[in-house]
TrEMBL record, chains A, B:
It holds the Pfam family Peripla_BP_3. This is LacI family transcriptional regulator. The keyword Transcription applies. Gene3D superfamilies: 3.40.50.2300, lambda repressor-like DNA-binding domains (1.10.260.40). InterPro entries: HTH_LacI (IPR000843), LacI/GalR-like_sensor (IPR046335), Lambda_DNA-bd_dom_sf (IPR010982), Peripla_BP_I (IPR028082). PROSITE patterns: HTH_LACI_2. It comes from the Bacteria. SUPFAM superfamilies: lambda repressor-like DNA-binding domains, Periplasmic binding protein-like I. One of its GO terms (molecular function) is DNA-binding transcription factor activity. Keywords: DNA-binding, Transcription, Transcription regulation. Signal peptide: none annotated. The keyword NAD does not apply.
Length: 336, 336
DNA sequence: TTGTACGCGTTATCAC
DNA sequence: GTGATAACGCGTACAA
């Protein structure tokens, strides 16, 4: 109805209420004494004009954007979506908007990240989505920064899930099943995945086995499906340890298509414990990673950095949990 | 290294280059004549000071945020994530940042949406995530608005997928299989889903059948799983038409747990054609919805509204496609 | 208790 | 070709 198109400014409110803008500001923000009568007049004017302070004005004056950024590769699959959700939830509770940037391997990422950094009070970056020199640039600029799922970065907070211990447990468990020919599905990423492969490799070495070279694939169901068909067509491994649950689901699919039974002919394990892992058939042995919590922690850590509640970077590793289900074998024999 | 913490302003650049801020602005934006020598000095100063124009300053002066908002319920499941991805991709190509707001049924949504509306040049809202009066408020404020998956809204663009025709095709196909006792999994939502149920009901009516009442459930695998167990425990339907693929996957899971064969004992269909639909066993009969494209269209429509390339709202419906796979029955008999 | 005036960092319109 | 200077919308010392 009253489509004013250009929304009211604090000056119009002041004029209508017959006061100065300073009084309007005080009345609205409770940042100083205002006579009851005056406040009432102001509030009425605000109401009538449907006044809301301009974000730009507020930000310019306060020096704060009240917005955070988050950089991730994509949203295919539950992992990034869940983390993002946990992040948004907390950020929004803390009164901060969330600006997203999906890299998808684009060439312009550095510029996009710089751009983003100019419109937020701090940002979160998933490991391996942004070049190290650009990350360093952000740190150097003094912008509060939290990295997710990455090894330590000088000057930035890190929030990560525990990988080494769980990967070792997983490897030990598979050895306990008697498997010796173990394949790794999903290539190195210099982050989470690499930590897992290193840990698995170490355990195998300790048992006199040659650590297998991970086979690269896209971290999607389709990627796992394609790689699974390949791995299961040659000399068949006894177990396939997958980089994440999606890859594992794809591998299981490939096995079924090839007429192989899981875990009868080949054991398969995942990582993350996405919802489908429990519902898959066979149910997926995996490592539970608190995805939402990861995002929530990142948001809180970033808030501390922004508000200055803390000024020294901190690195926190959240525990993960080996979840034994059916896909890794029918005789679970857990060892010390 | 040169951690200046507070980044340089245009005044500092001007001073260092020995010119006025107007010249710096012109040199940087090419919005007026600048002597070659002068430009060079300016650019060197910019380089040395690592100057980037403040977003707030630019926005305040230009009157544009160069940012769009998007409001969705959550990111569980591929549907919203895919649409969001398509949206972000185009928005970012158009030089606009994306600010997200996940409602998750929070009570504070109206305020959060108002807040969001103050920091963007336009926004996209998924149908049924924001109260109608709040939507009207946004429209009334003159902010460019695009609604996704919703029936028409006065004053706003709408981008939706075709539901009625495909739902009718799906229903006819199931009737062609000979099914008469058909259940609907997933309650009304006053949007997409309701359109589908209405259309299915109509086809059944035309064939002398009583349109079934849809059974509500969460639109997740778990929701479908729970509802599936319920529906398949009582008098068993011959076919279960699900609100989306996730629900369908859950229902299939429930059937397997109950020792029922799909489609032998009960046919199941989904909607969306998410990646898992093709990989499911049995492969899911569903309706393919161009999710990324939906987001991309929304971003482009919003851009038209913002730039003023178009000033009258438009409603576009993108076609969908019935995808017959194994889950609906073994003897596909497509009819006219 | 209230009002004036300045600062925040740009862009753009004028004169020169 | 260049430089003052007025917006843009707000918060807030400081003065009254």
């Amino acid at each position: 109805m009253a489509n004013s198109d250009e929304s009211a400014t604090i000056y119009q409110v002041a004029q209508r209420a017959g006061v100065s803008i300073a009084t309007v500001s005080r009345a609205l923000r409770g940042t100083g004494p205002v006579a009851a009568k005056t406040r009432e007049r102001v509030l009425r004017a605000v109401e009538e004009l449907r006044f809301t302070p301009s974000r730009l004005g507020v930000s310019l004056a306060s020096g704060r954007h009240a917005a955070n950024g988050i950089v991730f590769p994509d949203l295919s699959g539950p992992y990034f979506a869940e983390v993002l959700l946990g992040y948004e939830e907390v950020a929004s509770e803390l009164g901060r908007s969330v600006i997203i940037l999906s890299t998808r391997g684009r060439a312009a990422v550095p510029d996009l990240v710089r751009d983003l950094s100019r419109r937020v009070d701090g940002m979160v970056i998933f490991g391996q989505t942004v070049r190290d020199d650009v990350v360093a640039e952000i740190v150097d600029s003094g912008l509060p920064l939290v990295m997710i799922a990455r090894d330590d970065v000088a000057g930035a907070d890190v929030v990560a899930s525990e990988n080494t211990v769980s990967a070792a447990r997983l490897a030990s468990h598979l050895l306990g099943h008697g498997y010796r020919r173990i394949a790794l599905a999903g290539g190195h990423d210099n982050g989470d995945i690499t930590q897992r492969w290193t840990s698995v490799g170490q355990v195998l070495s300790e048992h006199g086995l040659t650590p297998p070279e991970p086979s690269p694939c896209e971290f999607t169901v389709e990627g796992g499906h394609a790689l699974g068909r390949y791995l299961l067509s040659g000399p068949r491994p006894e177990a396939i340890v997958c980089a994440d649950d999606q890859v594992a689901l794809g591998v299981i699919l490939a096995a079924e298509e090839l007429g192989l039974s899981v875990p009868g002919d080949v054991a398969v394990t995942g990582w993350d414990d996405i919802m489908a892992a429990r519902h898959a058939r066979p149910a997926l042995t995996t490592v539970r990673q608190p995805m939402r919590d990861l995002g929530a922690r990142a948001a809180r850590a970033l808030d501390e950095l922004i508000t200055g509640a803390r000024d020294t970077p901190r690195s926190q590793v959240t525990p993960t949990e080996l979840v034994i289900r059916a896909s890794c074998g029918t005789h679970p024999l857990e060892e010390a």
